Here is the input.
Amino acid sequence: MALKLGWRPFQPSQPAQKLPLLATLYLLAPLALWIVDGSWPALTPKFWMTGVIGLLVGSFSLIALYGLQLWAGWLRLADRLTLKPAAGLLILGLALGVGWTEELIFRGFMQDQLEQGLSVWGAAALVSLIFAMAHALWEGRTVLPQLPGLWLMGMVLVLARQGDAGSLGLAWGLHSGWVWAIGSLDAAQPSSSGRLPVWVTGFNDSPLAGLIGLLFLLATAGGLWVLLGR
Here is the structure.
């Protein structure tokens, strides 16, 4: 399929190339992990409860961050945000799928495997680096400013798993909430107003590629540390 679509790794991908490949990967990866590992996380009521909590916290906290920047005049919208319920549900479904697959791979399988030879946080640092670098497969050099943010995001999600007694529920919810919020807000094309340097608001208008995004992740980590007693 990659050859048919003309996709090249570590080169910026067009939506017509990226979406079919990602859809195929995200459908096959959980099945492959089940075959290799032979087990899935226990989908207990607690898993679903912490997943919903993470989804709400992740989405509303990111929306609040965007709202604060708009109120301060640091961001502007190219278009009025109008999101139909059907579109919002579609983005939510995609976000849940993306969050589930990536958490299953990185904070689940890879984290567990590396912990056999490393400490929890040594494994977390390495998994988060792999998680960040994996995005370069689709974005190429354009992802470079986001790498510190992606690495920190991975560390926060490991903390969420540790605080949730090893369950992926909270990490999955947070990850999906962030993807859902960003995907929904992208319809209005938020961009820097120019009042602050781009290294503060984010290079290429990416929330993970600026100081504000890094501080947001650190604040999330601090909140998890306090609330979950880790």
Q: What stands out?
A: Residues 85-114 form the longest helix (30 residues). Residues 44-76+85-228 form one domain.
